[in-house]
Design a protein that fits this description.
Elements (H helix, E strand, L loop, with lengths): L17 E10 L2 E11 L4 E5 L6 H9 L6 E6 L10 E4 L13 H13 L7 H13 L15 H14 L4 E5 L7 H16 L3 E6 L2 H7 L2 E6 L1 E6 L1 H4 L2 H8 L3 E5 L4 E5 L12 E2 L3
Parallel strand pairs: 3-7, 3-8, 5-6, 6-7
Antiparallel strand pairs: 1-2, 1-4, 8-9, 10-11, 11-12
Helix pairs in contact: 2-3, 2-4, 3-4, 4-5
Bound molecules: adenosine-5'-diphosphate (ADP) and magnesium ion.
Length: about 280
């Protein structure tokens, strides 16, 4: 990648935004993903659902190009992931060092830097785009604050603003709602809703089966292999979910409905919300 300018690869007309063909990833010979194929088309909203260790974060890293697949191909608009600035990536919060001393403004300006190259000074237009992105993510009042002193929901909105400033066409969000209170979750979801109506695609790793049932066009059910890819009604059934979650799935028959709870490991906060099963 050149520091002087970023010239993103051509976007092949009509190619899917993201396309994986037979992608496998191994960490020192231990397979994390095996033979994954799927497409994400323009403006689609897709959830990646699966237990801890299923390979969700690995999948995102292979799409943004920070991990190389051991087999298979990743295409972004028809070419390899390197240097594409059309993907905005919001990593899992526990993978970020929050002690890093930067302001919210700086974090969002990094989205512009990704576009214009490190050595070009941001101009008036770039500052305007940062302001607009902060406003859209309801974070304009936070601009001068240090990123490390914000709440989880505020941090998540700042990272959404960074992706907007980058003019991303698709956002990859790794468990954006985990650990957030309900109002913060609602704020993030309403921002995502706005993105969808502007044709920006989103791929979201989530533990929340209830939200996955309502909010996404499609579900990718993952546990190292792709167990299913389809609309929520087809995928969120006790049979499909137990193939992904195994013993971590609790089926609760109630008088009104059968509810599935995905237990993600340790604490009540991490207990995924329930989903009413359709079959
Ligand atoms: P998820 O995000 O669904 O919890 P991950 O993609 O983080 O899953 O991990 C998938 C598997 O790969 C797990 O078994 C995890 O321990 C392993 N893994 C993830 N990152 C690394 C790494 N950097 N080195 C070695 N193993 C890893
Ligand atoms: Mg993860």
């Amino acid at each position: 990648m050149s520091l002087f300018s970023r010239r993103p690869p051509e976007h092949r007309h009509n190619a899917p935004t993201i396309e994986l063909e037979g992608v496998s990833v191994a960490y020192s010979d231990r397979p994390a993903l095996e033979d994954i194929s799927f497409q994400l088309r323009r403006g689609e909203r897709v959830a990646v659902v699966g237990p801890n260790g299923a390979g969700k974060s690995t999948l995102f890293n292979v799409i943004v190009g920070t991990i190389q697949p051991s087999a298979g191909q990743v295409h972004i608009y028809g070419s390899g992931p390197a240097e594409h600035t059309c993907i905005g990536y919001v990593p899992q919060r526990n993978s970020i060092d929050w002690r890093f001393p930067v302001t919210v403004w700086d974090v969002v300006m990094m989205g512009r830097t990704a576009r214009i190259g490190l050595l070009r000074r941001p101009g008036r237009q770039d500052r305007l785009m940062v302001e607009q992105a902060l406003a859209e993510a309801q974070a304009d009042h936070l601009a001068r604050r240090q990123i490390g002193e914000l709440s989880g929901g505020q941090q998540q909105r700042v990272f959404l603003a960074r992706a907007l400033a980058q003019e991303a066409e698709v956002l990859l969000l790794d468990e954006p709602l985990t650990g957030l209170d309900t109002p913060s979750q609602q704020a993030v979801l309403s921002i995502l809703d706005g993105l969808g109506s502007r044709g920006i695609g989103v791929l979201v790793a989530t533990h929340d089966l209830g939200q996955a049932a309502q909010f996404y066009h499609r579900i990718l059910l993952l546990n190292r292999r792709l167990i299913g890819d389809g609309p929520p009604a087809q995928l969120l059934t006790s049979q499909m979910l137990s193939r992904a979650y195994g013993s971590h799935l609790h089926i609760l028959p109630t008088t009104e409905a059968t509810i599935a709870l995905a237990d993600e490991c340790c604490s009540d906060e991490e207990m995924g919300a329930g989903v009413e099963l359709t079959g």
